[in-house]
Design goal:
By secondary structure, the protein is an alpha/beta fold. It is about 25% helix and about 30% strand. It is globular.
């Protein structure tokens, strides 16, 4: 018989879920509690209940966990971006390791070796890609730009965000003020009206420059947007260029397909493994460059220490970041990417860095891999897999198994899909050597992982 759980009750938080919620159990019944830390003794109120679990918010902290700290951002409790900022940073790393281990146990059904999380070099001012939705007030028409409130699409008009470079705060404040003066309207999501949908900024750790992208609900650059872009460019020496992205679709996707320049450069430069990368409006590039560099250097050192001039497949390569970073320690890199814009940019980066051992294949990955198999099967010493959050398809994993002689290095931003894919690889005879987590997003529940797989 199921226990009767009152709506208001006292609980002790045992652990953290993979979504950053505290977990308490009452007679086997699971209660997920927002803004809670393992070790907290709480009075909570349930606001949503299902058959086997419930969600609750804190009414009173009866005894705080020793790891609970005061958030350094006054907006933490209402902003949806930094879920764990009230937890001591070093303990966040412990919790993220447990999130990875829990995913491996529950999904892969294995106790793979999970190493201690390598911390981010910075846990403030680390976020170098900022995407602010824009709206406006009904009466005064004041422009609003910031992050969404938790669980909603209501915009918090953020003036200061301590996880991003301060120059970005100054730029967005200037855009709000000058945009309103120019009569630029903010986007209304419900009726798809209004001009300015998002402001996207890419800030460089390497140069300190910022690329500003104004995402508009139009098919051409309006006079007001052009004036706004020029004002931003003239005001801030740090701004390398101002671009316009056109997105008239009723979609949650931030960027549309087409980009035009108003003024300045259409890229910033960033450095990884002593190689210079150009990053444009639509280029996929990690938001925490210093932590990303830790990952690339880690993979590079592993390959250098364990192989003598290997042949490497950089699969689903994007702008070939891994291939470019590994070019110093590999005999040959074969990079496969079907998006032409990414391959064109990779070609440019390869040429500017004087790299001569990378072959760039701009074609459908499946067809390219079939061609490799026809040439003789296990062609590569190492295969790099770096898929999006949804993980790899079974087809991709099969190709990796058939084409790789020795090691698959799987980089993942989602422990759940990583566990699923490692389960498949091990079912085919592969062995997981270990998993090395990295903290790419301090103060959130997200964790990046590098899995080393032997064949």
């Amino acid at each position: 018989m199921q226990a009767i759980i009152p709506n208001v009750l006292e609980v002790k938080i045992e652990k953290l879920s993979n979504m950053g919620l505290g977990i308490a159990k009452v007679e086997g019944f699971v209660i997920f509690v927002e803004n809670s830390c393992p070790g907290d003794l709480l009075r909570v109120e349930i606001y949503k209940k299902n058959k086997n679990f419930a969600f609750a918010h804190i009414v009173e902290i009866l005894k705080a966990s020793p790891y609970r700290v005061e958030p350094f951002c006054p907006m933490q409790k209402i902003c949806g971006s930094c879920q764990l900022q009230f937890i001591d940073y070093n303990y966040q790393l412990v919790l993220k390791k447990e999130i990875v281990k829990d995913a491996m146990r529950s999904i892969a059904g294995e106790e793979f070796e999970v190493r201690d999380v390598i911390p981010s070099p910075e846990n403030k001012n680390y976020r170098h890609k900022i995407q602010y939705p824009v709206s406006q007030t009904k009466n005064s028409k004041r422009l609003l730009a910031g992050y969404y409130k938790k669980g909603s699409h209501d915009i918090l008009n953020i003036k200061y965000c301590p996880i991003q470079p301060s120059i970005c705060d100054n730029i967005i404040d200037f855009i709000r003020e000058e945009g309103q003066k120019l009569g630029v309207s903010g986007y209304e999501e419900k009726n798809a009206k209004g001009l300015l949908r998002h402001v996207v900024m890419r800030s460089s750790c390497y140069s300190g420059k910022v690329l500003v992208v104004l995402v508009i609900n139009d098919n051409k650059i309006t006079d007001s947007i052009k004036k706004l872009g020029n004002l931003v460019y003239d005001k801030f020496d740090e701004v390398s260029g101002v671009l316009v992205n056109f997105n008239t679709r009723k979609t949650n996707l931030i960027l549309g397909d087409k980009v035009e320049s108003i003024c300045g450069d259409d890229y910033i430069e960033e450095k990884l493994c002593d190689k210079i990368f150009k990053v444009g409006a639509k280029t996929f590039f990690q938001v925490n460059p210093k932590s990303a560099n830790n990952i690339f250097e880690y993979v590079k050192k592993y390959v250098e220490d364990n192989f003598n001039s290997p042949i490497v497949l950089d699969a689903y390569a994007g702008i070939t970041a891994f291939g470019i970073c590994l070019s110093d320690v590999a005999k040959k890199i074969v990079s496969v990417e079907e998006v032409k814009e990414s391959v064109d940019l990779a070609n440019q980066i390869v040429a500017e860095n004087n790299i001569d051992n990378i072959d760039l294949c701009n074609m459908d990955a499946g067809k390219c891999f079939e061609n490799f198999l026809k040439l003789g099967g296990k062609t590569f010493d190492v295969t790099i897999l770096d898929p999006p959050r949804k993980g790899c398809s079974v087809e991709s994993l099969e190709y990796a198994l058939k084409l790789t002689k020795s090691k698959i290095i799987y980089i993942s931003c989602n422990p759940a899909t990583l566990a699923r894919d490692l389960k498949y690889l091990t079912s085919k005879g592969a062995k997981v050597d270990f998993i090395q987590p990295f903290d790419m997003f301090p103060h959130t529940y997200h964790v990046e992982n590098v899995a080393l797989v032997s064949l």
